[in-house]
Amino acid sequence: MNQNGNVNPLIPGKKILAIFGFVSIRNFPQITEILEENIMLFTNQIAEIIHIVCDSYHGIINKNLGDCFLIIWKLKDQDNLIQINKQEEISIFNISHCQNYTDLALIGFLKSQSNIYKLSMTKKFKNSLIKIQKTNPNFSLKLGFGLHFGWAIEGAIGSNFKIDASYLSPNVNLASRLENATKQYGIQLLVSGAVYRLLSNQTKQYLRHIDRVTVKGSEQPMDLYTCDMDCNLIEIQQLIKQSNENQNEPNKKILKYVQRMKKQTRLKKIIKNQIQVHNLFLKDNDFLIMRQTYTQEFFNYFHQGINNYLDGYWKDAKIKFEEAQLILNKEYEYIQKDKLIDGPINTLDKYMKNFNYQSPDNWKGYRELSEK
């Protein structure tokens, strides 16, 4: 940028390290066809939630692509936090700071999920959902979230007519593919092993290892993780209490100012290692409520099952997965008087069933993710 404030697009980009978060509204073409002109209001209400929440957890809002949003958590090497050399070897110099920053990215996406659910329960937003459900009675608002870490080239793309700050890298595409793959696993969030390794040990305990795959754009097998939450468990009374439908504009401005000041204060404490972000999980009432169904007993059986699956003992894996599903059903019936089919268990069971629960002779502990 020159002294006149103009951006010169004819300059090289810069290689940076970042956590890339991709969010997508599912069934968007169908929603657009039904809502027509009102699709703008529908989309912008969702965008506002994602933007506000991710910004409050130090994410950079980079792209709005209609039904998709790209969020960046940039790890700055000038802060002596993390660096990458020409051989793409990564060195971490401030582990605590790096873990805190990565925890923020995960929490930002988890809070986005819960707040989008709260939005769907407000009267104003329900009017849009009712119109959609008249055409598709089984419709429910669903979003997909993908988180991946890696390098990208940061720079200006465009010309003097229009220019955008952009991040070009296979790693950005991988975040998009992870989001897309959430539909295969019947979940909302997928986190790559690259992000998982940067999380604090305390935060790692909230994630579940659900598969190991190769995807288009990556030669190495990638571990996939999710963080289990059931937004349906958020109490209606709590939603009403927290609804900000009646907030007037001045109050919103005051709220934004307060949030900005809190954000700046928190960042200073993170830099000085005076705060541990993972403690936010224990203090967040929404998170604790949405985790009720997922007990340690469920995780124990699932972990045994996933280890058997990766090691090629698929008949043993089938048994452990079935036991985990029974435990989940028992807990869910107690809370919701209904059953809950676990997406990862269902996906892996279908895959193993294609081979009659006998791993192929060339099984290497991972599979190819068939779709994008």
TrEMBL record:
What the entry lists under CDD domains is as follows: CHD
Cite the Guanylate cyclase domain residue spans from the record.
19-179
Q: Name one GO biological process term.
A: cyclic nucleotide biosynthetic process
| Membrane spanning stretches | none
InterPro entries named in the record:
A/G_cyclase, Nucleotide_cyclase
The protein here is known as Guanylate cyclase domain-containing protein
